[in-house]
Specification:
By secondary structure, the protein is α+β, with helices and mostly antiparallel strands. Helices cover 36% and strands 28% of the residues. It has 2 domains: 8-37 and 120-169 and 264-343, FAD/NAD(P)-binding domain (3-Layer(bba) Sandwich), CATH 3.50.50; 63-99 and 173-263 and 347-376, D-Amino Acid Oxidase, Chain A, domain 2.
Amino acid sequence: MSDVRGKSVAVVGYGIAGALIAGLLARAGHQVQRFERRSGAEHGGGLLLAPAAVRILCGLGLEEALNRHGVAIHRVRIGNEKKTLLDWHTEAGFGVGIRRAALCELLACIDPGVRETQTGLAVRSVDAAAGTLTGADGKGYGPFDLIVGADGANSAVRTALTKRHWVHGKPRWNALSVLATIPATCDTGRAPSCDQYFHGGSHVSLWPVAAQTVVIAANVPTEQLGQIHDAEQWKRLLIGLVPAAAARLAHAELIGSWYQWRGREVSLRGFAHRRVVLVGDAAHSLSPQLGQGVRLALQSALSLSERLCAEDDWSLAVRQYEVLQRRLAKPYQRFSRIATPLFQSQHPLLIWARDTCLKPLADWQWSRRRILRALQT
């Protein structure tokens, strides 16, 4: 890697992590080239930003915009058709509900070169040694001093790392989200809250992102994915999967289309190889059940940009980033491997364990304090 200022950087994937690191490096005077496989604005559905993610955004000067575009969530409820399994309320809050598109727009505002993003360009291959990449059309780009892979859980850039550096499994769940309107009369007297409704191995979550606008998020069996996209069948399917959510879903009207996320757990022994470094879901994809994906994406982009801007030797900066990010991501990855089967498994024994043990754990002050501390720090 070159040791002069104004280095050349390719950012592959212009989502949450990609937009942030592209903006921060461009502001620092580096030459950033942005690549995005999507042709236009396709950021559907919504997100629940963890408190740590909110703090990062506020530190970037986006507090006012975040308050304007998001909704603070102070309550979390989990239940099934028989009983309430968890009902927590805290003044500190559980984060902010926001449209995915709104968050991406906020992050793009800090990038002076956002209009230069090359869209509709999928990356076919990356040469980590030379610092070059090849698009799906066969055209070559580079060489770059650094290639940042920010292209999600199914990252194409990650294939530039040798197998001894990374392992990941097959897609293990299908998470879907969509924006919907629910008439005010249906939610009269309800404080902004994130509500999860379970039925066996299926669940539906709802949380607000604006007045009378909520996110509907669901995990859906693979064989029923086609039905969820049908405008006439989605409501009947979700109500059938999770009867406890019927009262609110019955009045919901969709805004836009469903956003599908085929997730896989990604576990890396190293986040970099030669001139390639990974951030966000490309580096450490988690189950969406934890609500920490955006936090880790923002933190990884922020940590990497800080190290790159502080060090002339980018090889050293990347190694420092790897140490910091591994320390941050590992506890969440470990917890994800425990929590995901409990919350999303179709296995009867795990379903019984969740429905039997969650309420006593939620009511036990010791476990409640530890879980809240982990979610809010």
